[in-house]
Amino acid sequence: MKAGIASIRKELAGIYAKGEIESLIFLIFEKLKGYSRTQLLLANEEQLKENDRKEVREIIGRLKNHEPIQYILGLTEFYSLPFYAVPGVLIPRPETEELVQWIIQENKHSKPTILDMGTGTGCIAISLRKNIPQSTVLACDISPVCIETARRNSRLNNSEVAVFEYDILNEIPEVKFQELDIIVSNPPYIRETEKSLMEKNVLEYEPELALFVADERPLVFYERIADFSRFHLKNRGRLYFEINEAFGRECCDMLQQKGFLEIVLKKDIHGKDRMIGCRFKR
Fold first, then answer.
1. pLDDT for 146-199, tens place per residue?
2. Residue range 39-81, pLDDT digits in tens
3. Domain coordinates in residue numbering, the chain
4. I want to staple 127 with a disulfide (CB 3.0 to 4.6 A). Which of 15, 79, 176, 209 is the partner?
5. Which residues pair with 137 in a beta bridge?
6. Cα–Cα distances in angstroms (integers) from residue 171 to residues 86, 189, 203, 239, in the given order
7. pLDDT for 85-122, tens place per residue?
8. Spatial CA neighbour of 248 closest among 213, 211, 281, 218
9. pLDDT at 6 over 90
10. 76 and 70 Cβ atoms separated by less than 8 Å
């Protein structure tokens, strides 16, 4: 094991940061052997079987091509829950856990009906369903692979979330929505001009549909979801967004113009404007 880990460090040096390499090593052996971090340390003198060594070589080859480890392993973790991760579906980010935590803190005793728009893996919807007692959670997406993955993740986590197809920009197919207490969305918000700032593993492997918007209409999804929310939220229902840090003030102004109240712009753990919460009063 010791030699194998040393080999991984050598192969990935110069491609990934030192701390990231150590995290990748743990993830590889957690999947391969089921080891915790402590068990991995204690297994230093263990000899890897040939089939394990072969699998490690294959994983390292894919990592050297910048393929995300979540896609390679087929699994990731979000809010302490397991989620299938497949190509064509955006990999959940740690920052989004902060949005989920905020929603749970504000609504954990209200038995709300929640809609997650653009659900992807279903990570937001499923985490809310698991952590807000007696909540009813709906989730929609335009992508067939996202819909199927969110349904699989709902079953994986024994979580009752109704997942269905819906195109928010074009309002198709026609869906009869019940009145909602909460609408939440982490829609595409990265401008095309920001592509040059993105990491290679994101640009080459993750779905553009879930990431990018045209430079001339960076708030298109927020505007449309806000309009949708005005019709489908209950009186004083809540709307939550994850946002592009560059457009916090613009998002707040847009929501205010559309009649939303108690607008709160929150920073993430890195000090970036990343979340907005507000209410709509009829």
1. 999 999 999 999 999 999 999 999 989 989 898 999 999 999 999 998 988 888
2. 877 777 778 788 888 999 999 999 999 999 999 999 999 999 9
3. 2-65, 88-280
4. 79
5. 114, 161
6. 26, 19, 28, 18
7. 999 999 999 999 999 999 999 999 899 999 999 999 99
8. 218
9. no
10. yes
Mean pLDDT of 250-260: 97
Could you identify the residue written with the tokens 């920009």?
A: 169
| Cis ω before 218 (30° cut-off from 0) | no
| Dist CA 244 CA 252 (whole Å) | 12
